[in-house]
Write a sequence for this structure.
């Protein structure tokens, strides 16, 4: 359980996600919160390496209970959650870091523990997908992002915008069973058609503004039928609500809308979850880190939905 909220100040003591205990012992664990402090693969502003720290800091305000919509929800009453700490990536070296991330997260997945990963730039999702696909085979992807991240490797080099092109080429996600939400901006214009041609169901930010939360969730439920990996790039949200990120794009989702989208996911066959591209150096009053921390908690509530209280 998280530290007793009635004893001691919430901002004191060692900082773990939502004050859950830190552990690398995976016995009797349902969910491991894992940090990947890496941002070597960005094409614009760096800073997401501080994401796990920023999200953990902001998560001090997450209490072991929550009220929505009108009911008391207690994620930790049915899920045993530990903070696994950060993966020891090698600053400056993308591919050696991929190896380390994949092997560490494979250990978690093979132990039957759900990985809830705090990035890091979006490049970290590739080794996470590889680790999950070893167990599940080709997966569905639910991808929240301003960018399709479907650019081809240039000169054989990975960056944070090549993740899903490589994942499709490797056969570890099935684009025909995958949905991208929030796509917009001048950079994305060059690649969104290629993502659609590959088979992704793309809900651009303009589509989303027209069709709203419910219709988007309907498409997700209809298409995402394989083991489902959820990857949430915080820049899917408008920079008015999430300024602390490397490549902000205007006219995105509101914090309310992304919370409602995540809350609409219970019952899907989840394989893994990450939240990436939170860059605290550009944040203002911690609003981005606070949103990311809350979205991670909302996702825990999705996993907890329908589960019995543990003894
Ligand atoms: Mn991205
Ligand atoms: Mn993005």
């Amino acid at each position: 359980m998280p530290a007793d909220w009635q004893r001691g100040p919430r901002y004191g003591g060692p900082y773990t996600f939502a004050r859950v205990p830190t552990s690398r012992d995976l016995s009797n664990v349902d969910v491991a919160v894992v940090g990947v402090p890496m941002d070597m693969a960005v094409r614009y502003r760096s800073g997401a390496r501080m994401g796990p720290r920023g999200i953990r800091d902001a998560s001090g305000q997450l209490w072991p209970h929550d009220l929505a919509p009108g009911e008391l929800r207690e994620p930790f009453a049915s899920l045993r959650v530990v903070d696994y700490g950060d993966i020891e990536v090698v600053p400056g070296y993308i591919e050696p870091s991929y190896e380390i991330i994949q092997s560490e997260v494979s250990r978690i997945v093979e132990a039957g523990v759900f990985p809830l990963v705090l990035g890091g730039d979006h490049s970290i999702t590739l080794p996470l997908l590889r680790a999950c696909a070893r167990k599940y085979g080709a997966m569905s992807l639910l991808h929240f992002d301003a960018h399709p991240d479907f650019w081809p490797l240039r000169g054989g080099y990975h960056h944070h915008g090549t993740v899903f092109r490589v994942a499709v080429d490797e056969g570890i996600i099935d684009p025909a069973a995958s949905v991208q939400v929030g796509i917009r901006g001048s950079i994305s214009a060059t690649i969104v058609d290629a993502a659609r041609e590959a088979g992704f169901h793309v809900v651009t930010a303009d589509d989303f503004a027209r069709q709203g939360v419910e219709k988007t969730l309907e498409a997700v439920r209809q298409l995402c039928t394989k083991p489902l990996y959820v990857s949430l790039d915080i820049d899917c949200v408008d920079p008015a609500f999430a300024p602390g990120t490397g490549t902000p794009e205007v006219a995105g989702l509101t914090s309310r809308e992304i919370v409602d989208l995540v809350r609409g996911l219970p019952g899907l066959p989840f394989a893994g979850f990450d939240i990436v591209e939170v860059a605290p150096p550009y944040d203002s009053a911690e609003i981005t880190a606070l949103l990311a921390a809350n979205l991670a908690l909302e996702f825990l509530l999705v996993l907890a939905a329908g589960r019995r209280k543990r003894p």
